[in-house]
Amino acid sequence: MATRKIGEVILDVKNISLRFGGVKALTDISFDVREHEVRAIIGPNGAGKSSMLNCINGVYAPQEGSISFRGKTFSHMNSRQVAEMGVARTFQNLALFKGMSVLDNIMTGRNLKMKCNLLQQAIRWGAAEREETTQRQHVERVIDFLEIQPYRKTPVGKMPYGLQKRVDLGRALAMDPQVLLLDEPMAGMNVEEKQDMSRFILDVNDEFGTTIVLIEHDMSVVMDISDRVVVLDYGKKIGDGTPQDVRANPDVISAYLGTNH
């Protein structure tokens, strides 16, 4: 693990319950996330992991409970408000603009930083041109960090899947997030691609000090890179602690890990 200091609680999830009609997606879920840590959320398919991320970043409004960010408590915020506070998100199913270049895709992560209006940006004159130059320099640093310089001008749809996932990470990093929510960042990857993505996640956490909340099915990855793990099953929390604690938890073993772990 990277040598960085885990701080105070930055994100506090309290008693979140979420229903869709008569279906309970989440029931009374509570956990916290500390600054600079890698916090994993695991569980079987249908456990409520993505629903939990959607509550945190404002896509869903839970019927009960609250979420606190840096001590400020909210019953619900929309996605833009969450992003403006410094929370960025990647998605399990890539939401990239396949016909646009790597550079232009990652530039979309800077939209909230733009001060000029759309008309000024369209004509790219004066302040708008200077602003775009500044934002582009920031994006170039993200591209360098993720080691995708050779693909800067390549349409994303023509790139290998693993590199597309890296571009998705880059777009989120371009927002300068304090908290980065990663939804299955290694889904569909081969072993080498997973190793690369694990390294980048740890580097983001270490070099930028970014707090990471991670959903991931690959248990070896979770156990290797996480500081703490919360376990969901059928929308309920059944475990929470260090990877070692979770690995030894009988409820987790029964519901998810299996007796061979």
What labels would you give this structure?
261 residues; alpha/beta; Rossmann fold; six-stranded mixed beta sheet; four-stranded antiparallel beta sheet; 10 helices; 10 strands; 24% strand; globular
Plain-language structure description:
This protein is of the alpha/beta class. It folds into two domains: 1-86 and 177-261, 3-Layer(aba) Sandwich (Rossmann fold), CATH 3.40.50; 97-176, no CATH class. The chain is built from ten helices and ten strands. It has helices at residues 49-56, 79-85, 102-107, 118-123, 127-145, 161-173, 191-207, 219-225, 243-248, 250-257, and strands at 9-20, 23-34, 38-42, 64-69, 72-74, 87-89, 179-183, 211-215, 228-233, 236-241. The strands form two sheets. The chain has a six-stranded mixed β-sheet, sandwiched between helices. A hairpin with a 2-residue loop joins strand 9 and strand 10. The longest helix has 19 residues, at 127-145. The protein is globular and about 50 Å long. The model has no long low-confidence stretch (mean pLDDT 87).
